[in-house]
Amino acid sequence: MINRVLIRAKVVQMLYAYMVSKGAMTLTTAKKELTKSLDKSYELYNALLKLMIELTDVQDLRLDEAKHKFLPTEEDLNPNMRFVENEFVKRLRADQTLADFVDDKKINWRDDELFVRLLLDKILRSEEYQEYMEMPKTSLVRDGEVWYQLMKKVVLPDENLLEHLQSMSVYYTDDDLQIIGQFVMKTIRRFEDEEAQPILPQYKNDDDSKFGEQLFSKAVAEMEENNSYIDQFVKTEKWDVERIALMDRVVMCTALTEIRNYPSIPVNVSLNEYIELAKDYSTPRSGQFVNGILNAVVNKLRADKVIIK
């Protein structure tokens, strides 16, 4: 579930923090922090799945409270129960893998009841909700589809969601939310297709589970050598070697480590991923700069037979 796009971002973030610490952070500590950060990304995945159950429960409670008002209306006494009886949410609630993980990690949205209620209000006002409630009949696919659309258009874009998540854990970042949100929506589709185990595992395979720590360790070990390659191709009339942004160096060194050590990953894939990270994490000119330097270094490494792919 945690893909290499997110792993690369986490490695770059941790390598930058390690370099900035100037020895205050040990390599062992940095690797532990990297592992914890990746574990927290998987917690976020489960927390967002759990959020759909919490929102359903709050609406169920509201409908029950309305029945017991002093003067309930006919609608209060006989509410449309389609949303709270959503078949997708029922299956999500019954999933033992999710239930065990949430219980083990003590994931709970009810510590901020106001946030959940305000988010539910947005859902109830949405076109997606209104259309769903007015359908003549529903099905598992339709029940999943409404939550797919609600997550895509209401929940994940909510301006308060990231702030609330970061109050739950400092490890939850915008990068995590963007990537993990896509996997949550993919999981909804897996329930619609009645997958035997719709909840995605933390990693696709053993190679991915080891990728982050291995890449980080190799990037640290090869930092000096990779920097020497980079400095060879910095055009001094345009770029001052001493003034290259540290984040640019971190991104390029990590990219070169991946290109040199992972023959199964196409060079263009690595280049594209790290150029995007430079754009996101460094200066406005970083994308173009990193692109130019990395391509020059790669051409040299190919000419020298250091990389053959």
Commentary on this structure:
The structure is a single chain. The chain is mainly α and 309 residues long. It has 15 helices and no strands. It has helices spanning 4-21, 27-67, 74-77, 87-94, 96-105, 113-125, 127-133, 140-155, 161-168, 174-192, 206-221, 223-232, 246-261, 267-281, 286-303. Helix 2 (27-67) crosses helix 4 (87-94), helix 12 (223-232) crosses helix 13 and helix 13 (246-261) packs antiparallel against helix 14 (267-281). The chain is elongated, with a radius of gyration of 24 Å.
Concise synopsis of the structure shown:
This protein has 15 helices and no strands. With 309 residues, it is mainly α.
Order of helices and strands: HHHHHHHHHHHHHHH
Query: Pairing-aware structural class of the strands and helices?
Result: mainly alpha
Q: Residue ranges: pLDDT <50 for 5 or more in a row?
A: none
Largest sheet: number of strands, sense, barrel closure: none
Keywords:
single chain, mainly alpha, 309 residues, 15 helices
SSE layout and pairing:
Layout (H helix, E strand, L loop, with lengths): L3 H18 L5 H41 L6 H4 L9 H8 L1 H10 L7 H13 L1 H7 L6 H16 L5 H8 L5 H19 L13 H16 L1 H10 L13 H16 L5 H15 L4 H18 L6
Helix pairs in contact: 1-2, 1-11, 1-13, 2-4, 2-5, 2-6, 2-10, 2-11, 8-10, 11-13, 12-13, 13-14, 13-15, 14-15
